[in-house]
């Protein structure tokens, strides 16, 4: 896979993350009438994680390095978005 393909895959993940977080915030506004700080923290940190992993993937030009960090990013963001982030954020706030 080329460097351009990795950029495309990362942008696709970012757009999915943006869509999911927008739906989560919209659902929180409708159901609770307000967006609590732990929800903002969860959605905000997911973008921070994406940026960190995006930068780490391109530190080295090795394809195995990029594929490995891309898979780690997808798995971590999946668990973060499906409840781990909200659980940790509720513990903090």
Protein architecture, described:
With 93 residues, this protein is an all-alpha fold. The protein has one domain (3-92). The chain is built from 3 helices and no strands. The radius of gyration is 15 Å and the shape is elongated. The model has no long low-confidence stretch (mean pLDDT 87).
Number of domains: 1
Structural class: mainly alpha
Helix content: over 70%
| DSSP strand content | under 5%
How many extended strands? 0
Molecular shape: elongated
Please state the average pLDDT score.
Answer: 87
Distance, first to last CA? 42 Å
Annotation field: number of helices: 3
Q: Rg to the nearest angstrom?
A: 15 Å
The main sheet comes to: none
Could you give the topology of this structure?
Blueprint: H1 3-32, H2 37-57, H3 63-92
Helix pairs in contact: 1-2, 1-3, 2-3
Keywords: Membrane, Transmembrane, Transmembrane helix
Transmembrane segments: 7-30, 36-56, 68-88
């Amino acid at each position: 896979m080329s460097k351009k393909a990795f950029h495309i895959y990362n942008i696709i993940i970012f757009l999915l993350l943006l869509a999911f977080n927008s739906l989560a915030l919209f659902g929180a506004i409708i159901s609770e009438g307000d967006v609590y700080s732990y929800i903002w923290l969860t959605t905000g940190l997911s973008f921070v994680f994406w940026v960190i992993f995006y930068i780490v993937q391109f530190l080295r030009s090795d394809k195995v390095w990029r594929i490995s960090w891309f898979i780690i990013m997808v798995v971590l963001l999946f668990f973060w978005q499906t409840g781990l982030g909200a659980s940790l954020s509720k513990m903090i706030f």
